[in-house]
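Reply to dn_fold:

You asked what the input looked like. This is it:
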Amino acid sequence: MPQLKRALPGTGMPSSDSQKSAPDRISALPDDLLIYIMWFLTLQDAVQTSVLSRRWQNLWASLTILVFDAAKFSSMRTFRKFVNNSSLSDPVPLDELCIYAVCHNSDDSLDYSDIHPWIRHALNSKACALSIVEHSGPKPLSMQGYPFPFTSAYLNMLSLCHCSIDDWFAQNLSCCPVLDDLELMSCAIHVTMFSSTKLKSLTITSTHTEKDFPVVPKVLQHDLLRCGTFSKLKLLHLGEWLSTRGCYPLICLLRRSPAIEKLVLQLDKSGDDDYETLPNADAEIDPPCNEAVTTFSCEKLRKIRILCDLRNDKRAQIIVGILSAHLCPLPDIKIKPIITIEV
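and this is what came back:
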């Protein structure tokens, strides 16, 4: 009960023990099955199951997958309090921590001083997967001034949204020797050097905040030649930023990914609208070049999927032409609506 009393104030629900006398069939279920059911709930909902039956009172505290959703709270203050009370009080071995960091009922937002203790606790609890998704705020989350939190011998999946990614961050990823799945969504990327011999899946998307901060600045568009090889990368998923300077960022990454098997290119409607208003739109994506194109082979690349909102998105056909000029042989290429994304 102490865990329940600490957590419930953040949910706004009473902690009364009163129960009606009725057959309790739930209590007959084994712990493993009840915990499996809770995996499909956010932690707030899981905590609320404590009032269903005495049988459920402390089961939520055994969850190894924690999903926190700020949208279910009336304010960011109550969300912070709930996370602190329910996740930091009693260390339990974890598999995954996922934070949905947008509260639709509040203009307030999280900063990194809020999130850092949660990340540190999860990784100290041997979490294998960590996600900060749907974060919004005036500036990207910056980890400067804090000890690098992602030092872990267990972390193999990391997903970050609206974070600042710099050289310090990239260099310290070596502290995660089994990390093979990295997803950067709408992040401000300021790295000048990046390579990995471990990554098998890399996602870099920047779909709706490019006007707010430099998501992929000059370094990624001009200095990719300095990047190392991604020797084990099998899946590459790129967003709007790839369609610049003859898809130069895309071509460079493909040349440095000898094991790649599938490429997903995600073009959003906002970018298509901007394309339609540009006077020299085609040249923005595929500028004229007097030099001969040097073809290369990605021997293991079998699938290229271009996802867009409209099947007649003109950018998709231009990108297909660029890929055709560089890749030999050309793998299977399909253009699909963005809602059918399958990675």
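Residues 1-10+28-161 form one domain.
Hope that clears it up.
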